[in-house]
Design goal:
The protein is of the alpha+beta class and 164 residues long. It is elongated and about 90 Å long. The protein binds FE2/S2 (inorganic) cluster. The site of FE2/S2 (inorganic) cluster has 11 residues, from loops. FE2/S2 (inorganic) cluster (FES) binds next to loops.
Length: 164
């Protein structure tokens, strides 16, 4: 009798254990972000298609991203330029560091002008006039060949940010 009872007890225990494992698996699946969400944090931009001296705007995590492939007549900024081979790029989040308006690129003056309160940034994204308290922010990035991957903190990004 007792062996029959213990057999039933073990059987229930085994069934409950398997059920618990399935439940845990299902719970983990619902906690994990969907693959689409995981990849949504990263944006890849092929820099080889950009023309020298031309301003381009992209989007990353719903924020405007400014990129200029610097032409030889543009100022070099070793503290901010993204360097790939012989090319230098200005890369920044296109939100004014005063109150968050989107500045416009003025090619004739090679500056970014913020229409909200007259703030200005040079071709490296450094604040040069008006109320903006600091340069435009540089988004985390990594370089893979000629691809710029936004959302990843690569070696060059860490170097610019003085993290390494
Ligand atoms: S928001 Fe750009 S100058 Fe005020």
């Amino acid at each position: 009798m007792s062996s029959r009872r213990s057999f039933i007890g073990y059987s229930f225990g085994a069934v409950a254990g398997v059920g618990a494992l399935f439940a845990l698996g299902a719970m983990k699946k619902s906690w994990d972000p969907l693959p689409s969400v995981r990849s949504a944090g990263f944006t890849s931009i092929d820099l080889s298609s950009l023309k020298s001296g031309e301003f381009s705007q992209f989007e990353w995590r719903k924020k405007p991203i400014f990129i200029i492939k610097k032409s030889p007549d543009m100022k070099i900024n070793d503290k901010r330029d993204v360097v790939i081979g012989d090319d230098r790029y200005m890369l920044a989040i296109g939100l004014c560091t005063h109150l968050g308006c989107i500045p416009s690129w003025v090619p004739s003056q090679k500056i970014f002008k913020c229409a909200c309160h007259g703030g200005e940034f040079d071709e490296s994204g450094v604040n040069t006039f008006g109320p903006p308290p600091r340069p435009l922010d540089i988004p985390p990035f990594d370089i893979k060949g000629t691809m710029l991957v936004l959302g990843e903190s690569g070696k060059q990004y860490k170097k610019l940010m003085n993290i390494i």
